[in-house]
Design brief:
The protein is an alpha/beta fold. Helices cover 33% and strands 16% of the residues. It contains eight helices and seven strands; from the N terminus they run βααβαβαβαβββααα. The chain has a seven-stranded mixed sheet with strand order 4-3-2-1-5-6-7.
Length: 204
C-alpha cells in the first residue's frame, strides 16, 4: 500500500445514506480477476443512463467541477451490505484516497485500511457544513493531515478527527497485513529454522 501522511484534494459530494457495496460496485462486475479497472464501474447504476455508457447528468459526481476529486464526502452507514473488498478497490481505482462520513459499515471500514483508502468519521453537523461549503465553492479542496489528525479547510481553520492509533500507524507507513507480517520476518525465519531442526518430530 501507499503510505498516507497528508492529502490535498478536491472534495466530491455524495449525499445519500446507507450506500451499500452493491451500489458502490455492482455484483456483475465482480468477475474480474484483477484488483484494478473497477473505477470505471463505480456507482455504475447512478453514474450512467440505461444504455450503460451515457453519463447521467443528474448524478452530482458526474459534474465537471468534481473531476479529479480524491476526497469523497458522504452520509451515514456508507459501505453497508456485503463484505466485498471490491468496494474500496473501485473507490481507489477511481481516484479517491479518503472518505468522510458520520459513520461507516464496520467491515467496509476495516477493508478501507487494507486497500489504500482512509475513512474518517466526523459528526453529522460537521458533514452537513462541508456539504454546504463544497457546493458553494467550485474546486473546494481540503487537506487531510493524518499525523496531526486534522482536516484543514481553505480558510485555514481545522477539523479534528479520531482514529485508532494502530490503524493510524499502519496507514502512515503503508502497511497492509502482508506488510505487517514482513516486519517480523526475522522472527518468522527463526521459527521456521528451529522447526526444521526438530522435524519430523511432532513435539518440538
Amino acid at each position: 500500500m501507499e503510505p498516507f501522511t497528508t492529502l490535498t484534494g478536491i472534495v466530491a459530494p455524495l449525499e445519500a445514506v446507507n450506500v451499500d457495496t452493491d451500489q458502490i460496485i455492482p455484483k456483475q462486475f465482480l468477475k474480474r480477476i484483477q484488483r484494478t479497472g473497477y473505477g470505471a464501474f463505480l456507482f455504475y447504476d447512478w453514474r450512467y443512463l440505461d444504455d450503460g455508457t451515457t453519463a447521467n447528468p443528474e448524478f452530482e459526481l458526474n459534474a465537471a467541477r468534481y473531476r479529479g476529486a480524491s476526497i469523497l464526502l458522504t452520509k451515514d452507514n456508507f459501505g453497508c451490505g456485503s463484505s466485498r473488498e471490491h468496494a474500496p478497490w473501485a473507490l481507489t481505482d477511481y481516484g479517491f484516497r479518503c472518505t468522510l462520513a458520520p459513520s461507516f459499515a464496520d467491515i467496509f471500514y476495516n477493508n478501507c485500511f487494507n486497500n489504500d483508502l482512509l475513512p474518517i468519521r466526523l459528526p453529522g453537523a460537521v458533514i452537513d457544513r462541508l456539504f454546504a461549503d463544497v457546493r458553494a465553492v467550485e474546486g473546494y479542496a481540503l487537506t487531510i493531515d493524518l499525523p496531526n489528525q486534522q482536516i484543514v479547510k481553505p480558510d485555514g481553520s481545522t477539523i479534528s478527527f479520531e482514529i485508532d492509533p494502530f490503524l493510524k500507524q499502519r496507514t502512515i507507513n503503508g502497511w497492509d497485513r502482508i506488510g505487517l507480517t514482513l516486519r517480523h520476518g526475522d522472527k518468522v525465519a527463526a521459527h521456521e529454522q528451529a522447526r526444521s531442526i526438530c522435524s519430523p518430530a511432532p513435539f518440538c
